[in-house]
Amino acid sequence: MNSSNAFREEVRGWLEDNCPASMRTPMVADEYPGGGRRAQYKNADTKLWMDRCAERGYTVPSWPKEYGGAGLDKDEVVVLQQEMQRINARPALVGMGLSMIGPALLEYGTEAQKQEHLPKIARGDIWWCQGYSEPGSGSDLASLRTSAVEDGDDFIVNGQKIWTSGADNADWMFCLVRTDFDAPKHDGISFVLFDMTTPGITVKPILLISGYSPFCETFFDNVRVPKSNLVHELNKGWTVGKRLLQHERSMIGGIGGGQKTTSIEEYALQYVGKDANGKVADPVLRNQILAHRMSDKAFGLTMRRSVEESATGTAPGAVSSMFKYYGTEQNKGKYELLLNVLGTQSLGWQGDAFEEDELGTTRAWLRSKANSIEGGTSEVQLNILAKRVLGLPD
Ligand SMILES: Cc1cc2nc3c(=O)[nH]c(=O)nc-3n(C[C@H](O)[C@H](O)[C@H](O)COP(=O)(O)OP(=O)(O)OC[C@H]3O[C@@H](n4cnc5c(N)ncnc54)[C@H](O)[C@@H]3O)c2cc1C
Predict the structure, then answer these.
(1) At the topology level of CATH, where does 128-237 sit?
(2) CA dihedral 210, 215, 220, 225 (to 10 degrees)
(3) What average pLDDT does the segment 207-214 reach?
(4) Candidates 216, 367, 369, 374: which one to mutate for ligand 1, based on the most atoms within 8 Å of Cβ?
(5) Does the global pTM surpass 0.85?
């Protein structure tokens, strides 16, 4: 048995002994394992699974052990993902800590910042939110105007962020602020971290038509942030901010795998029925499903190749825009097909006439529309690809 097979056996055995049965079922909306100081666990297994994985470094398997990871190499991470998918294990922990600020701190944080924040992220102790967008600064993020003025050992932060996902439940924020108003716009930005309980922060959830409030307006009124919470150099925050966006885009685009969900074929066989050969009865739908599956497979292989070619095994630079663009289009396409399959059963919002699963699919279809906006719109990704990957003129 070679070392890769031995590792697979070891992982398989560990998962068998440690992944609770309810964590091998499809994820449900109110059981997402975001962690944080204020987390409440409807299903106790969610926390148990998180703690067991954290103890073994499996919430952040590629991170070094001293920061809470398992120190796995790229091939071992792939084996772990495959074995988790094999038993349909839910992710043990999700969120911006794990997939965005953690990797950015590994690259740009001071040793003290890594020691302070990374183990807490790996354990799911802290829920992070992202203070990037402002009214008037979305796609043109570098035009942001939230200010941070030096005052002794601190910065004093004033201004406003918008669309801050989960800010009302978050423990800490990573935030882009302007520290030089005279420099060209990309050169006057700094990247800071702060505890959301710091005096002067007000969070107002934005009520959406769906009845949910996933985003907030976040206001800063003379918020005192220690200078030790500056990540990287003063006025060089755009470098960190951009890098973090690449991690975010890779995550939204789908790098890293995830839990298997019911396939479109399974739904189609259930809702549309089978022909004499046991295939999906509708030939047009069958072709659409096949085309989608082929694109999915090709996309998966391209992502895998890109991760293998990258030095870190994580964010592949400007190419993350390609994953973000294509991955989100695929995801939207998947939900369009699922709605076709469900037919009139996809028209429900609530009520006994619809199964929970059907209502969930309809809501997920609506949510998929936001994929091509969050983390930078599709148009912005195409601009980046034109400039940074294809080298076309501005
Ligand atoms: C689900 C979700 C979660 C989010 N979470 C967060 C969060 O946690 N923190 C945070 O800071 N922000 C968050 N955002 C905000 C998100 O980053 C912005 O919505 C996004 O960057 C677009 O900015 P905007 O909404 O201001 O649109 P605008 O920039 O006003 O764009 C409007 C339209 O113009 C197009 N456009 C703009 N500029 C160009 C150009 N140069 N070329 C071609 N087309 C262009 C855009 O593609 C878009 O279609 C979230 C958004 C969503 C949908």
Answers:
(1) Butyryl-CoA Dehydrogenase, subunit A; domain 2 (2.40.110)
(2) 160
(3) 83
(4) 374
(5) yes
